[in-house]
């Protein structure tokens, strides 16, 4: 398999653009710590509103280096994840969490250095009914995420790279960033964006 970790050399925006403007998760999902970066295969979890038992089960369904990606059925007013789960995730070697919902214990999660990308912070607790799925396709925004797709995150947000397009993403992102470096040099030399792009 292509070394997906090389994707961390590129910004999420570059990867998104390079793949034809696909894979970007909703802009509301941002890192708790802006300096955080993540990259790893998706461990997909679908939970029901205000319930997080399936997340606890998901912790033990993944492999070291996986990123747990959670769809919360569109319900954000709950803290689906906290410092106890962050500690458990670190113990099993998960790379980080991406959740289309909120978490709590934000200061503690930041202090332990566990990367979390979420909608925000919410102190409301959750139930433990357990309905949902693990490692099945999920949808966040308009993006379908399959187990094993590569999750790349930085300060700008999250982009999902289909598992079969990793090398393509690397090649095209590299070409894009080289081109943008040339553009920046032309701008420093006095050309305008209108001239360079022919607008």
The count of helical stretches stands at: 6
Principal-axis shape:
elongated
Largest sheet: 8 strands, mixed
What share of the residues does DSSP label as strand, in percent?
Answer: 15-25%
CATH topology type of the domain at 23-161: Glucose Oxidase, domain 1
Tally of extended strands? 12
CATH architectural arrangement of the domain at 23-161: 3-Layer(bba) Sandwich
Q: Could you report the average pLDDT, rounded to the nearest whole number?
A: 96
Description:
- It is a single chain.
- By secondary structure, the chain is of the alpha/beta class.
- The chain has a domain at 23-161: Ribonuclease E inhibitor RraA/RraA-like (Glucose Oxidase, domain 1, 3-Layer(bba) Sandwich), CATH 3.50.30.
- It contains six helices and twelve strands.
- Strands 1, 2, 3, 4, 6, 8, 11 and 12 form an eight-stranded mixed sheet that branches.
- Strand 11 (150-154) and strand 12 form a beta hairpin.
- Helix 1 (12-18) crosses helix 5.
- The protein is elongated.
- It starts with 11 loop residues before the first helix and ends with a helix.
């Amino acid at each position: 398999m292509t070394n997906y970790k090389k994707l961390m050399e590129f910004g999420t925006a570059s990867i998104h653009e390079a793949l034809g403007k696909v894979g970007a998760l909703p802009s509301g999902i941002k890192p708790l710590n802006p300096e955080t970066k993540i990259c790893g295969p998706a461990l997909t979890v679908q939970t029901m509103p205000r319930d997080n038992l399936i997340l606890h089960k998901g912790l033990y369904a993944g492999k070291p280096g996986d990123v747990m990606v959670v769809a919360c059925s569109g319900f954000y007013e709950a803290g689906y994840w906290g410092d106890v789960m962050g500690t458990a995730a670190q113990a099993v070697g998960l790379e980080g969490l991406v959740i289309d919902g909120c978490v709590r214990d934000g200061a503690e999660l930041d202090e332990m250095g566990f990367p979390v990308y979420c909608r925000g912070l919410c102190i409301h607790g959750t139930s433990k009914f357990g309905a949902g799925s693990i490692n099945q396709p999920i949808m966040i925004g308009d993006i379908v995420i399959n187990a094993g797709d590569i999750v790349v995150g930085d300060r700008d947000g999250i982009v999902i790279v289909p598992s079969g397009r990793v090398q393509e993403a690397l090649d095209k992102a590299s070409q894009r960033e080289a081109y943008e470096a040339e553009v920046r040099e032309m701008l420093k030399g006095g050309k305008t964006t209108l001239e360079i792009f022919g607008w």
